[in-house]
Specification:
- The structure is a homodimer of 257-residue chains.
- Helices cover 20% and strands 30% of the residues of chain A.
- In chain A, helix 1 crosses helix 2.
- The mean pLDDT of chain A is 95.
- Chains A and B meet through helix 2 and strand 4 of A and helix 2 and strand 4 of B.
Chain lengths: 257, 257
């Protein structure tokens, strides 16, 4: 058994997210079945979330339905001596054209794509100009009125640091710690685009989309930048803005030491 | 009645081309119905290719099913006093999100988007690298083996000038002249992309796609660059290469004096 590290990009539009689940098209499910077929193992998706999966593709984390990725990382132990490039080319040949394996490389036996993560970077893209670009329309959230991106950038600074982000978590029954560290949160305008880039230790369920939704409220003047600390303090989902649509979100990169 | 000039971009993936036709989704059809609705005229697509269309949107030319455009130009006479920006915003609000009106401006009464054309520029995009980009996968033709772009660029030079391009026309019953002038034909490689950009006086049916298909044959060594003049001379469709897929083609710009 060799351990491999995969760098993956996908258009999440038609998937029920990363994580395999019964009766649904998922990114993890597609790749697992494809790896299984390559190795002459089961080609039935159900076997891969059963009790004894033939192989287990471990993602750095989940992405929600409709969320995209340019730099998802996964690890997988495979009973094969095939070269990383051969594995990559096989997968790219047989995977649907909205998933691509950018790189496969051998990893140490101890490498685990989820446990070893030290941070992630997400990008949230909004378009608020008068003429919406048609070719990339599935990768941004369109707004009809222009945002004040300077106000949003001012608000963004309050998020940086270690905080309890319970107000920015969809799961109300979250029992584990909701404390996370945000290292960087930048809001940039480039013509009709407003891009929110956020890096941190890890993110709660829907956390980036709720931050984006809250920053949009700031951009429309419905929340003041200086309100952010009290929204964080509230530790209450209803204190923050709405969850911004999935289609604007993209996992850019996953970090390891 | 005022005459307007529209600059239009569309993702042609799901359309049966530009030109309106019975029972098919077309770009011209979508825009005509939308303009009709704005003016309180008929919202029935059939009325717009009937004997007395309520309005007539004149494109600079047709694009085939599946072909894209960044710079299609059309003209239309409308019984309205609405400002160009109001018309643009109305259309962009109600058109499907794979069609956008980049600009509407008033034109002289004599401006006719088809008759007044002095030239067009098309771009044909091929990807031949190992990892196909997923986000723009509907806008290039994917090839598994790398092309020799230098050979293609060498072949491209033979196309420039005024020639009878009958070998590069799908329609065998074409009665009008098949003589056209190509002003520029460039082949450029940028990493995994090979882009063919062609400007000329006008193009026959499938002409750009047959030129692209022929250049791909050159890139694979199956046709010599120096064979191009005799292929043109043959005035026979079977002498040229295959018609490259529609999805790689995009109308970049239409010129007027």
């Amino acid at each position: 058994m060799k351990n491999y590290r995969l760098l993956i990009t996908y258009d999440g539009t038609r998937y029920k997210g990363w994580e395999h689940q019964p009766g649904a098209e998922t990114v993890q499910g597609k790749i697992e079945v494809c790896l299984g077929r390559m190795l002459g193992l089961s080609a039935s998706p159900e076997d891969y979330f059963g009790a004894n999966p033939p192989i287990e593709l471990i993602g750095s984390g989940r992405t929600d339905a409709g969320v995209h990725a340019k730099g998802m990382v996964a690890s997988v132990k495979l009973p094969t001596e095939q070269s990383p490039d051969t594995i990559r080319d096989y997968l790219n040949h047989y995977l649907p054209d909205d998933i691509a394996i950018r790189e496969v490389r051998e990893a140490s036996d101890r490498f685990h794509a989820r446990y070893n993560t030290t941070g992630k970077t997400y990008e949230y893209t909004i378009f608020d100009g008068p003429v919406k670009p048609v070719f990339i329309r599935k990768y941004y959230t369109a707004l009809d009125e222009p945002l004040d991106a300077d106000r949003m950038a001012e608000a963004a600074e309050y998020f940086v640091g270690e905080h309890d982000f319970k107000s920015f978590c969809t799961n109300p029954k979250m029992k584990k710690s909701t404390v996370r560290r945000i290292d960087n949160l930048a809001v940039r305008r480039n013509k009709g685009y407003v891009t929110i880039t956020v890096s941190g230790s890890g993110f709660l369920q829907n956390m980036v989309r709720i931050i984006a939704g809250t920053l949009i409220e700031v951009g429309y003047g419905r929340i003041e930048p200086s309100d952010i600390p009290s929204i964080i303090e509230a530790k209450d989902r209803t204190a923050a803005g709405p969850t911004a649509p999935a289609k604007g979100l993209c996992l850019l990169a996953v970090n390891y030491d």
